């Protein structure tokens, strides 16, 4: 890996094109290096993972809306597929629908470093274009490997959250780079596409603050759609603002810290295998990633309380000692009263570690639908316990969150439960059970089990078998439409009717 320094340059400075971060990313994308076997295997896992959470959300309202919009852009031949249904649709609209389906339940993979990301968001737009262009599985694998590589390394090097910029600003460029790899585009074309993609996918973090709406699911899907359009324009010779990151009126100078800040972004050198996907991790539970370990911790502590004959009704307080990010994003440090509101949206409850820990402690389990149901959130005993939970930042958890040592890096918490009689029960967990260093790391078997669990009752057993066989054979596929999953007619009939729009 090469560590690249990235800073603002005045327009009058001599700043050669080859030194632009977008150009260096484009060079990585254009590098014809082969995809290694470990990376191929993990890409297959994530294709299965994305399909799992997508089929589970197909009949939900936001995903239904996105699907209906895409179905208004049917094409006569070629085109891409949309999760759940048959048909041929324009790639950018299929990417919007599929990206929304993948993101809706907050249930797919994650990478956390200087910033946040869900790198599996790269897959829907890259796959949609591969289907639209009639590419094969080998090309798809190359494109996805690049998408993950670029997003993970941008997340390592550039913190967006600090300046309240949404993390999809790293996704637009990564998708553009992945498409460039997959389509065998030249460096100059990819460079322009990356610049356009960043320029058109920069938004504030209000999508994940306060009253969180369904746009949280649409945001990465929209970024993928914008990246597809950016690549299309660039292939036709249209350019981008430049230098997009380093310009005097550019991204770093005005969207991030200031012209004085220098960022360091690692990128593979020429000929170096793209392996960043292997640093990412998926979710066992449908909740924001930083709540994965606390959910498992709550399940363990429920058993501890039962062994000691202690009841949740007798709890005086619960304090979660955790990282800066967890405290300020999903904890009481966010100062969002909505996170304590039983009538809040599912998206908001998904970003409330107070709610999540209380429910997991009471139930000893977590379910992608039942744990968020309005009747579940409005139980009086749950509300009472929920409002006893608070978070505090702990310097050691913050240090471990940002550690570059995978053996130290952690996204967990220490829970201190104090009872009314003065009894104190403490426990901590650094990583979720499903994490590569956790108690039950996810492997192919677990990804398949997750798919079958979430597809049950929605996808026929025969269709499940067909999709899984295709996904595991992706490298040899000539027709990538086989990676779509169709729901049964009975399941699709459960989708809500959406009001008429423009399309």
UniProtKB/TrEMBL annotation:
SUPFAM superfamilies to which the protein is assigned, alphabetical: 2-methylcitrate dehydratase PrpD
Gene Ontology molecular functions: 2-methylcitrate dehydratase activity
Protein name, UniProt field: 2-methylcitrate dehydratase
Highest taxon of the lineage: Bacteria
Record text on subunit structure and interactions: Monomer.
Keyword Nuclease appears in the UniProt entry: no
Record Pfam families: MmgE_PrpD_C (PF19305), MmgE_PrpD_N (PF03972)
Presence of the UniProt keyword Lyase in the record: yes
Residue span(s) of domain MmgE/PrpD N-terminal: 19-260
Coiled-coil residue spans: none
Keyword line: Lyase
Enzyme class: lyase
Family according to the record: Belongs to the PrpD family.
Stretches assigned to the MmgE/PrpD C-terminal domain: 285-475
InterPro entries: 2-Methylcitrate_Dehydratase (IPR053420), MmgE/PrpD_sf (IPR036148), MmgE/PrpD_sf_1 (IPR042183), MmgE/PrpD_sf_2 (IPR042188), MmgE_PrpD (IPR005656), MmgE_PrpD_C (IPR045337), MmgE_PrpD_N (IPR045336)
Enzyme Commission code(s) on record: 4.2.1.79
Catalytic activity: (2S,3S)-2-methylcitrate = 2-methyl-cis-aconitate + H2O
């Amino acid at each position: 890996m090469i560590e690249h320094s990235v800073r603002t340059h005045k327009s009058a400075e001599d700043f050669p094109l080859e030194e632009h971060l977008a150009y260096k990313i484009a060079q990585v994308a254009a590098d014809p290096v082969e995809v290694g076997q470990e990376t191929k295997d993990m890409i297959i896992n994530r294709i299965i993972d994305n399909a799992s959470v997508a089929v589970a959300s197909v009949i939900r309202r936001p995903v239904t809306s996105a699907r209906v919009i895409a179905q208004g852009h049917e094409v006569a031949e070629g085109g891409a597929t949309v999760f759940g249904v048959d048909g041929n649709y324009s790639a950018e609209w299929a990417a919007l629908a599929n990206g929304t389906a993948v993101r809706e339940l907050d249930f797919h993979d994650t990478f956390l470093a200087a910033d946040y990301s869900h790198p599996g968001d790269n897959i829907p737009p890259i796959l949609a274009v591969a289907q639209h262009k009639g590419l094969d599985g080998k090309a798809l694998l190359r494109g996805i490997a690049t998408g993950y590589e670029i997003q993970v390394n941008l997340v390592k090097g550039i913190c967006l959250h600090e300046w309240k910029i949404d993390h999809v600003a790293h996704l637009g460029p990564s998708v553009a780079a992945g498409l460039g790899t997959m389509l065998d585009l030249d460096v100059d074309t990819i460079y322009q596409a990356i610049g356009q993609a960043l320029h058109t996918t920069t938004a504030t973090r209000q999508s994940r603050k306060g009253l969180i709406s369904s746009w949280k699911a649409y945001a990465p899907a929209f970024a993928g759609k914008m990246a597809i359009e950016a690549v299309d324009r660039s292939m036709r010779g249209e350019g981008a603002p430049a230098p997009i990151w380093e310009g005097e009126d550019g991204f770093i100078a005005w969207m991030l810290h200031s012209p004085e800040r220098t960022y360091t972004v690692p990128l593979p050198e020429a000929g170096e295998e793209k392996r960043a996907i292997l640093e990412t991790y998926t979710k066992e539970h449908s909740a924001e990633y930083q709540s994965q370990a606390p959910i498992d911790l709550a399940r363990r502590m429920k058993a501890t309380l039962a062994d000691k004959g202690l009841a949740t009704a007798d709890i005086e307080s619960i304090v979660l000692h955790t990282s800066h990010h967890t405290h300020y994003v999903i904890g009481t440090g966010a100062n969002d009263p909505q996170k304590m509101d039983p009538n809040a949206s599912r998206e908001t409850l998904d970003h409330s570690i107070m709610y999540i820990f209380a429910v997991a402690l009471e139930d000893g389990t977590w379910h992608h639908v039942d744990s968020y149901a309005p009747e579940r959130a409005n139980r009086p005993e749950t509300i009472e316990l929920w409002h006893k939970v608070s978070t505090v930042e702990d310097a050691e958890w913050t240090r471990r969150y940002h550690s570059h040592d995978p053996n130290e890096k952690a996204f967990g918490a220490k829970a201190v439960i104090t009872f009314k009689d003065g009894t104190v029960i403490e426990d901590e967990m650094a990583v979720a059970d499903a994490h590569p260093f956790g108690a039950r790391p996810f492997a192919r078997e677990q990804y398949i089990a997750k798919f079958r669990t979430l597809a049950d009752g929605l996808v026929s057993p025969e269709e499940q078998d067909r999709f899984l066989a295709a996904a595991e054979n992706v490298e040899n596929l000539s027709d990538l439409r086989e990676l779509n999953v169709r729901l049964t007619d009975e399941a699709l009939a459960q989708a809500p009717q959406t009001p008429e729009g423009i399309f």
